[in-house]
Write the structure tokens for this entry.
Amino acid sequence: MTQGQLEIQLIAAVTAAACALPGVFLVLRRVSLMSDAISHAILPGLVLAFFVTEDLASPLLIVAAAATGVLTVVLIEALSRTGRVKEDAAIGLVFPVLFSLGVVLIARFASDVHLDVDAVLLGELAFAPFNRFVVGGTDLGPQALWVMGPVLLLNLGFIVAFFKELKLSTFDAGLAAALGFAPVALHYGLMTLVSVTAVGAFDAVGSILVVALMIAPPATAYLLTDRLTVMLGLSAGLGVLCAVAGYWMARGLDSSIAGSMATAAGLAFALTFAFAPERGLVALARRRRTRRRAFAEKMLAVHLLHHEGTPQEDRECRVPHLQEHLRWTPDLAKLAVEAAVRDGYVVRRVDRLALTAEGRAYARESMVD
Amino acid sequence: MDLLHDLLFDYTLRTVALGAATLGIVSGSLGTYAVLRGQSLLGDAVSHAALPGIALAFLLTGSKAPLVLVIGAALAGWVGTLAVMGVVRRSRIPFDAALGIVLSVFFGFGLVLLVVIQRQPAGNQAGLDSFLFGQAAALVTRDVVVMAALGAAALVVTLAFWKEFKLLAFDTAFGSTLGLPMRRLDVALTTLIVIAIVIGLQTVGVVLMSAMLIAPAAAARQWTDRLGVMMGLAAFFGALAGASGAVISATTTQLPTGPTIVLCASVLVVVSLAFAPRRGLIAAWLRARRNRTNLREIGVLEDLYTLALQHAENPHHPHPVATLQTMTARPESVVPGLEALAARGLVASHDDRGWTLTEQGLSAARAFARIPEGSGQKAEGSGRRTTGHGPRTTDHGLPP
């Protein structure tokens, strides 16, 4: 593996981890699409900063874009608070305006500059190692690492410093406000982090795929755990995993690295959605089947108890009769009988069913329930 | 007149304006339901999710015919939508997170395919990436015809299922009790929204198409509370934004069409939010100001009436301003209130001895009294003074 390849993967991993951490709170607070709005809306900030600095590599671009991200949040909140539009409509109204302004500014005033609007949406990690951070003739590594590394540390620092406040305001906003935890300041602090992260990440993966890195790993982790600390760790870990997997997918297909990272994140989510041990589709189906069998077994026991020692016993306590009386399908009847026999509640005598002592106790207990 | 001449006879300008107006009508109409149902950003997810469909359609057919690409986009958008619905229904992932995942992952996959296409021998990607930002200037009559046909079909279905979709938007549970298949109607309506989205992709692009779904409907909402009127207005606003954006873009150098259309739509939203007669922010501000004024006058009137009840033998006994000021939580409002009431002939000033109700004022005060006249007598007899008031509402209006 060449150093360039290693550096690309490192940049991708750091970017993914940095995006996943604030993404956890976006998912839990149900404001995931703020990441979409912010990552699209930073364009005019970038353009205006470029007009001032004439330098695409200036740190001022990051500051201006992050400020524009916060402005986006402010505008969305203000529009929501009028009560005339819902919050999702406010998001959908604000970011296209800002994005459109950015595109118009580029088209009219910067069309001869290498400020390609494609780069904002798409990004390309493959070229990241060529932008070196050189100080006094010393090569300190890819510039992208020097951007995303501090962003990752900033995110970690914010979350560690305000963990209990973030946790409380995320899960019980009313109590957090009552305790004076400044929920508005916390909200804007979090949104500032999202802005800074989106700005830092867009050069690597483009603004739309920032959404994939911010939302998909936390959502995947959300299907795997109920603990916030575990969710944070899992999100970052999954992000890194998807970043590296995406890199190798891109190599195999000779295609877009950022696109492959997003696709890998999507695959991770889909697999978890299907197979998560507690909440996956497979687990849910298995649990549903188990509950269905247990319920049928219980009904069978109660049915036999009702007819035990009665004149109709000989007719009622036969397997075929379960289908007539209880309207069970043949499969369900077979399933229930086999389960009851296996659990020791019922014995079969030729074609008749009879309760065991254990089965009788189980049936009586079921009726009490 | 040059502009009008060009609009009528310049092929490119006419085609682009017609195309933009068509997309505005369809996205405005169907956006009405998206906005009312709290699914505004569904359009964003669909438009981003459409990208792999476009790429796959090209890969499978080698064709860039608009109908082929639109079908590919629609299928991918539809699959994305069903994925969102499925995730939300079968897990605890919230709706917005599911939207975020679908829009970004599908888009990422679309990027992968676009680059794969670019590396193919016959892989001329040109034209496909125009979907990212829209390329209205490239519209030709055939494109507009496809858009119009698909849009018309979507609108016809919308009108045919008017009652059902209305129930879906406003009272899904009631629809279920009537025995309507609400889930299938949900999928059907979402499918129509997908159609509205994909016919606009070539004009305004993946990123901005969601704005065309939301902005006309959000603007229309400010002017009416009736669904039919809202939908009609949204279609009109959509057409207006589309056509005006196209024209402005064509007549100004280096102004891209898609963003200009979106900015025109946004201007309509801002104007509607500000100036709509009932829901507009300016109307609301004026209403609030009028209510504050009324509240101030009613407060003073009630206080004078309370004092008048203390002097049953002479209800026109004057009272100084200072007395009235001690009776209210907002003493600064007393003098302006008195002056306003005096202008209406309800109170009169007795030089330096204070203010009193006129006969007219007494009648008006009784109409609003929350302290019955009889209890005033009783209150005085028991030696208690009645001061202070419960909360006042802004519903009071003085008689004309």
